[in-house]
Structure formats: structure tokens, C-alpha cells
Amino acid sequence: MLRKFSCVNECSDCCIYREYYPSIEYGKIGVLIMPEERSKIRAIAARNHIEVKIIPRLGIGMNVKGDGPKEIIAYQMMGKNLNGNYCPFLETNSSQRSPNGGLICKIYDQRPLACVAYPVIEENGKSVFLDGKCTFCNKFSTTIVEKDGMQQEIEALTKIKLEVNVDEKIEIWRYATAIGDKENAAKFFPAGWILQKDSQD
């Protein structure tokens, strides 16, 4: 049975917890930031006196030295905690809450495309597939929901896919963050570019 997606009451998990991707060695990833969004996010942060850390995420081609990409096609905004968690724009010191009772995003109307798209990870006909780490999916043991009401998320995901879709013959680079929980620190690659064998993000 298809369900209609809605944020679970009092949930803010997608704004709090970051994951290790594509594996623990790369450290935790941040919120995907498209190149054209980077300066906007930095300007919003400066106006609100919020410190943000935006670093590379994906690159393509080979630079002249051969130690990194020729072009950066995606960035990432890291969490404000040392372990990589908590979006810097999440309001954690206010008693005000979002409509679902979760913590408030200070830039909700200007949030990055990746945040608009979440939790949609794929669209197929009349249904959309959601991120299995989404609390809604865990609660209802489903990753398929009605497409109706998810148009904004689908459009945002489509824009992202168009920008990060690259020819598989081009070198793909991923940036290792070396950020995560202390107990995993010995497993991390040093921060910096690592050449990938595939173009999956």
C-alpha cells in the first residue's frame, strides 16, 4: 500500500545526523551544495553570524599535477559538531518548533536543493523512493510513497542529477572529510581528494 509522506512528529534527524559515505574511511559527508549555491549559503550565514564550513565533495577530470580534479562539480556543508552532526542552520536553542514539532531550520525558504529534495532519492512512474535512513521509512517499513505532494522534492532531485551526471569515462574524485566519531578516527583517510573507480554519489 502506498503512503503519503509526512515528517514524523518531533523528528529533525535529517538535519542532525550525517552518515559515512561511501564508506567509513571517507569520513562523514555534509549537506550536498551545488556550485551555484555555495556563495548564497555563505552570504546567508554571514548575515546571520553563523559559521559554516563548505568543502569540496565531488570533482571530475584530472588536474595538471594529477593529484586532484580539474573541476569541482559539488561541495558539501559540514555539520557544526566535531563529529560532523548538526546542520549549522538548525535552531537548537529556541523553544519554537516546526509544524511537525521538530527543530526549526533558520533558512528553510532558502535551503539548499539537497534539503528540498530530501527524502526523495529516485522517481519511478507514479511512485517515489525515499531514503531508507529517513525516520518515516523506518516507522512504516516502506520506501515507496505516493508521488502526489512530492513534486517540489522530485524537481529538486532532477536538478541535482542533471548537474552531477557525468560521462563514466571521465575521472571521478571524492573528497575525504576525515570527520566523524572519535572511535572511528583511525579508520579515516586523510582529508583530501581520492580518485574513484566509479561515478556513484
Short précis:
By secondary structure, this protein is of the alpha+beta class. It is built from five helices and ten strands.
Question: In words, what does this structure look like?
Answer:
The protein is α+β, with helices and mostly antiparallel strands and 201 residues long. It has one domain (13-183). Helix content is 21%, strand content 21%. The strands form three sheets. A five-stranded antiparallel sheet has the order 1-3-2-9-10. β6 (120-124) and β7 (127-130) form a beta hairpin.
Features:
globular; 201 residues; three-stranded antiparallel sheet; 21% helix; five-stranded antiparallel sheet; 5 helices; 21% strand; alpha+beta
Which structural class do you get from the secondary structure elements?
alpha+beta
- Beta-strand segment tally: 10
The arrangement of helices and strands along the chain is HEHEEEEHEEHEHEE
Query: What is the chains' assembly state?
Result: single chain
Q: Low-confidence parts lasting 5 or more residues at pLDDT below 50? A: none
Binned, the helix content reads 10-25%
Share in β-strands? 15-25%
Total of domains: 1
Bulk shape: globular
User: In this structure, how is the largest beta sheet organized?
Assistant: 5 strands, antiparallel
Q: Biggest sheet, strands in spatial order?
A: 1-3-2-9-10
Distance from N terminus to C terminus (CA atoms, Å) equals 30 Å
